[in-house]
Amino acid sequence: MNTLFKARFSSLVFLTVAAAAATTDRPAAAPPADRVLLAPHRAIYDLTLSKSHSSRGIEAIRGRILYDFSGNACEGFELKFRQVSEIDSGEGKAALSDLRSSTWEDGNAKKFRFSSENLFNERRTEVVDGQAERNAKTVAVSLSKPAQKNFSVPSGAVFPTEHMRRIIAAALDGKSLLELPVYDGSETGEKLYNTLTVIGRPIAPGERVPDDAGVKVPAMASLTRWPVTISYFDKLDAKAEQGGEQTPVYSIGFELYENGVSRSLILDYTDFTIKGEMTSLELKDGKPCP
Questions:
Q1: What does the pLDDT look like over 194-221, one tens digit per residue?
Q2: Is residue 232 very low, low, confident or very high in pLDDT (cuts 50, 70, 90)?
Q3: Is residue 20 classed as helix, strand or coil in its secondary structure?
Q4: Mean pLDDT for the chain?
Q5: Cα-trace Rg, the chain
Q6: Are 31 and 169 in contact (CB under 8 A)?
Q7: What is the pLDDT of residues 132-165, one digit of tens each?
Q8: Of 5, 124, 170, 227, which residue is most buried, by most CB within 10 angstroms?
Q9: Coil, strand or helix at 214
Q10: How far apart are CA 66 and CA 267, in angstroms?
């Protein structure tokens, strides 16, 4: 879910929803605030291993995602995210991954603050802290962790909440494909991905009624949702540079409601696939723009 879902297992732990299209340099403008209204909400997703495709040795994955989103287009959007996952490689061997992050993004998609830490078996393996600001020519990034560093990414790069808003806007317009550069401070704060979003046929209210926690929230019953898949590609993939076919590093599938809530997660890392069931959903009282 862009801004969707961030998570990684050690080097694979999925730190989502960051992407960068290599050829887009035009500044990105936010959709009208009255057209795409994201609902402040708190959701919990239980994770299990769906498929294992290789000899990597993963026999089971159990975990949980906490996704706490708040704010509005006037005051900015805040996301607090945590994913805890236990990875069983068999023979009694298990590892615990704990990813925690928080972000803030202003409603005009011009400023972005981010911080995250990743613990593996209760030992910190990664910490990132920084901010980014869009100007007329570029997006200037300033990192304080893991080390002091200043650099820039193309001005066409959008931030994660803006990416979500644009996916919804495209779905409302009946579009089925979307390519956008996105920067979210993933990895060491310098990682960029190429990304392609595929949007499926709209699912009307009352059609294919879900059986997860969303059905307990009356306000969700009247909303349209769409099947969405976002594929992430390494920007430095040699095949892409030579015009060849590029293989995604991973992809995220989910059903996206028009208010920004996501359900029925599928996290595909090529070698294995994880599914996430929404087991709790709370729509919080949102403070509207004046």
A1: 789 999 999 999 999 999 999 999 999 9
A2: confident
A3: coil
A4: 84
A5: 18
A6: yes
A7: 999 989 999 999 999 999 999 888 888 999 999 9
A8: 5
A9: helix
A10: 15
Over residues 238-271, the pLDDT tens digits come to 444 555 667 888 899 999 999 999 999 999 987 8
Structure tokens that stand for 55 in this block: 């000899």
240 φ, ψ to 5°?
Answer: -65, -40
CA distance 280 to 73: 25
- DSSP 8-class letter at 195: E
Tokens representing 186? 């993933």
**Per-residue model confidence (pLDDT) at position 20:** 27
Domain ranges of the chain: 6-283
Residue 170, helix vs strand vs coil: helix
Are the CB atoms for 258 and 224 separated by under 8 Å?
A: yes
Name the token pair of 81. 């995210």
Please tell me the distance from the alpha carbon of residue 118 to that of residue 236, in angstroms, as a whole number. 24
Contact 229, 251 (CB under 8 A): yes
Separation of alpha carbons 268 and 251, rounded Å? 5
Name the range with the highest mean pLDDT among 92-96, 121-125, 131-135: 131-135
**116-124: long-range pairs with CB below 8 Å, 24+:** 116/6, 116/15, 116/185, 118/8, 118/13, 120/10, 120/95, 120/96, 121/95, 121/96, 122/96, 122/98
pTM here? 0.85
Number of residues written out for the chain:
290
Distances (CA, A) of 122 to 84, 94, 113: 11, 13, 25
**Residue at token pair 């769906």:** 50
DSSP assignment of 82-147 equals: EEEEEEEEETTEEEEEEEEEEEEE-TTS-EEEEEEEEEETTEEEEEEEEEEEE-SSEEEEEEEESS
Distance CA(110)–CA(21), nearest Å, equals: 18
Beta bridge partners of 44: 66, 280
User: What does the alpha-carbon distance between residue 114 and residue 187 come to, in Å, rounded to a whole number?
Assistant: 12
